[in-house]
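Review form for a predicted model. The reviewer records the input and the model, then writes brief findings.
Reviewer: anonymous (R2)
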Amino acid sequence: MAANKHTDKGFCPFCGNEFLGDHDNCPFCGQDLRQYKDDLGPIMETIQTRTNIDMKSPKVRITISIILFVLAFAGALVAFDYYETHMQPEPEPVAEGIVVDIKTNGYIDLTGDFANFDLNLLPTYDPDLKLTISLSDKYVGKYNKIIWVVQTDAYNHTNAKNPFYQKVTKDIADSDNIYSVTWDNVSIGRFWITADCYGESGDYDVFIGKGVYYGKYTTTYSWEYDGTVNSFEYTMSSDEVKNCLNVDLSSRLDEQSKTSMTKYVVDSLSVETLNDQLRSLFNKNYRDSQAKYADFVLSFVQNCFPNVFDSFNYRVNDYWAYPTETLLWGCGDDEDRAILYCSIMKREGRDVGLLFLPETTIAAVDVDLTDSPISAYAKGVRGVYSLYIVADTSSDLGLGELRPYYDVSDNGRILYYNGEEIHGHYGLEVV
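Model under review:
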């Protein structure tokens, strides 16, 4: 005999209410039951038989309802994720960077609106490198005023504006050539080009091009020492430039927290080249001696590398620069210049160290003071085997001299600051 569908009992897996009769929708909450009623009964009977759980109990039914709701919700999330991943239209591809060769001087990597070809860049030599930046031809005639801005992120010791910033406003009333601008004095490193464009009808568009110039870095150093003007041209390879520009700042600071500053005193190709040129110049103009050359190099670092804080150069409060980085940016703080000096003298064959003092770090070098006039007053700090003569790169003092509020005594074994003996973590660390 067939079951009476009007008297058979059912229940809703969503709200847990029991009802009489065969319903496609729950008479209490209105949920569609068609996808559950054919399968739920046998499943519940099986559970009841195997577990001896009263599947008609209201508590059990409510629990099952909650479980089913959670499963249904999870299924909806999976379906939504699949839709988001597979059914949504593909995003517009981001234009990749383009590369512009600069003869034998490296290359420029361009992104932003350069890669979209809304902005163009043309390098020329006249005789030095210049970059002409222009809007695409499709925009010519659309605007009556364009404000061009060129910016760099590096200290530029050849220009009063640091970092370099050039703003040029071009109006159609003054010139037809408003769609391009020329950047002279191009510097190594990152740069940004912005074009704010204004049309007669109130239209406004802005184009931003980004780039990095990886090229040979060439500069001329000139300074006076012992009555003679010394000058030479120095060139750093484009590979070394690229290594400096592509430093991972987070990894670098992590490395810095786990090691000693003396690790940054290194003998690299740039240091070798620099020392060869300094030594050649020194031998040409002065009488050779260890102390004299150490003093000559000290004057070079003091005069050719201005004091610039790490927050300006590297955007962090404390950054220990390798000598190549200091050479590239042409400046540094007391630590950077002390590291550079020690690297040059180490390449020269001298033992060196860094002297940590309150509010500063200075270099120290082991040199023979025999027959040197500075032996009468030179201050040094005692190492394990010898005396290291101080070389304060952050002052205009000569080799062996200390600023008035610092002093040493007992043959370089005791340090003083403002007349008081220095204890703790201050002192000499030999490289």
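Findings: The longest strand covers residues 204-215.
Further findings: Residues 9-87 form one domain.
Recommendation: see findings above.
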